[in-house]
Amino acid sequence: MPKINNLVKYKSIPILSIAKRLGIKLHGKKAMCFSGHDKNTPSLSFVPEKNIWKCFGCNKKGDSIKLVMEVLKCDFLSAISWISQEFSVYPDNSIFSNYYSSATKEKIVPTKEVDKKALITNTFMPNPEIYKWFIDHCNSVSKKQGIDYLRSHNISLDLEKKYNIKELSHPLYAYKKLVDKWGNEKVYNCGMLAGTINSNFLIWKNYSIIFPFYTSNEVKYIQARQFDRQPKYLNLKGIKKPLFNFDIINSLKQGDSVFFCEGVPDAISLSSLGVAAIGVLGASSFTSDLAKHFLFFKIYVVPDGDNGGEVFKKSIEEIFNSYGKTVYSFKMKDKYDVSDYLSRKKKYD
Ligand SMILES: [Zn+2]
User: Fold this and answer.
1) Which domains does the chain have, with CATH numbers?
2) For residue 57, how far is its CA from the centre of ligand 1 (angstroms)?
3) Which site in 7, 88, 265, 318 is 20 to 30 Å from 156, CA atoms measured?
4) How many whole angstroms from 277 Cα to the centroid of ligand 1?
């Protein structure tokens, strides 16, 4: 166990505030125990003067950090990181950040009674109901890191609202809430859990920006952008990647232009110009079947200006060429390349 200086800072946060933030319903200094054994009378008791708690039902007890560990079923360092984020306190020793990242690595619970058959026959399926519930419970983007990221990608507050972009601040807490509500298996089956079905972690382990994918008003997919660690974009596990903003084709007529972008942010940014922009999550996720929906439109591809962009452009071209369609292209150095083009086009049309 690494030594963390100034634990006092953590231990001095009022225990009742921590309990509330963990979702414990307080009746004065008492509450029903988080272990679930209480039926009528609350056994969980808090002593605010000493900042400790004890359960007279299961005899568990401890300080604020222990409470977080018990309720979120996490280890010491994860509890510290949760408190850090919730209450904006940070440890003084700088090496903590290293320990933090190793502490948040996936922890797989020893398999006692893993249903092997369930694991083998498991098929991952999108679950719009769970995705919607999750999105509804995420905050609007409020951290500077998230806001800076969006604005630097030309995503205004209006676009943020329009596409219902959210942020995930406390993955461990979100895990707990999701599993309490839906159960491990359902959350696992829709691709949101890391590791095995017994995993204690979501696929998102850090602060992330959350992009919901809507089709016919249902959330069909979620992609997250995390910071400070790779990969930058996190996709759901085992779920086929759909196109972002696919529904836009319902508002188009024959001969209208459709712009295929690499990834979600470019598609959102481009859509602010009033064009139909579709986000593709990697060249390999665009298939001949998907292309069929776009055969009556004029096709533009907007690749990034790098090698990956070149591959992306070629693969989109190949697929549409196989239907005898021409593909026009732009480099996505700056959306204003497209903006500029559109204004000139209007002039000469
Ligand atoms: Zn108890």
Assistant:
1) 7-103 (3.90.580.10), 121-235 (3.90.980.10), 246-348 (3.40.1360.10)
2) 5
3) 88
4) 53
